[in-house]
Write a structure and sequence with these properties.
Strand content: under 5%
Helix content: 40-55%
Structural class: mainly alpha
Oligomer: single chain
Distance between the termini: 64 Å
Length: 210
């Protein structure tokens, strides 16, 4: 445990190609990874809580030279897909495994492209379908795989597709969305719901849910 709240250690890679750092929560393990991620991206490191504070960063190799961005790859936790890049390919040193890894991503990209094409034809939409799905089911515009994994079970559980013939842009038209977001429209909808419920409550023949 790092009771002095700083990391002061020498890592010897002559006997092993990797070193595991274990510490309790709040010991800045994630901050250490973030520093290396900044190097990989070629960005200056800064305090996430107090970004205006002056920070210094110095990481050098065995010869005292600054660490190059192309020499660093940070595998972030909980990322379901790193994407096909040169850095991820070099993680697999074995040539056969690397070929399998690259082919897997090629197959995934092809399947994704075919899926998005089919969705675009079915929905008759001119929008960016990948972005629409991602932003609808996640908080980001670029989490397509996470989005479809979230709705996978629900989609498979459906026995039919009652709205399959409704064009997406007809419902989610930019002008329609702009009207739906106005204060007057929301007030009108609330007034409609109140009157609708009042009529049902006093009706002899009609009831909710029937």
């Amino acid at each position: 445990m790092l009771w002095n709240k700083k990391l002061d250690a020498f890592f010897d890679f002559t006997q092993s190609a990797c070193v595991a750092i274990y510490a309790q929560n709040g010991s800045m393990k994630s901050s250490l990874a973030k520093v290396f991620e900044d190097i990989a991206k070629g960005e200056a490191s800064k305090d996430r809580i107090f970004p205006a504070r002056t920070t210094t960063r110095e990481i050098v190799d065995e010869n005292g030279a600054a660490l190059l961005s192309e020499c660093v790859f940070v595998a972030r936790p909980y990322d379901e897909v790193f994407g096909h890049t040169e850095k991820t390919s070099t993680l697999l040193v074995d040539a056969k495994l690397r070929e399998e890894y690259e082919q897997l991503h090629i197959d995934i990209d092809k399947a994704k492209e075919a899926f998005l094409k089919a969705l675009k034809e079915q929905s008759n939409s001119k929008k960016d379908i990948e972005r629409e799905i991602s932003s609808t089911f996640t908080k980001a515009d670029s989490s397509f795989f996470k989005a479809i994994l979230r709705i996978k079970e629900e989609v498979f559980a459906q026995k039919d597709s009652p709205f399959a013939n409704v064009f997406y842009d007809t419902i989610f038209d930019e002008k329609v969305l702009a009207i739906l977001g106005t204060k007057d429209f929301k007030a009108a909808i609330q007034d409609y719901i109140k009157k609708y419920n009042a009529l049902l409550a006093t009706s002899i023949y009609f009831k909710k849910g029937v």
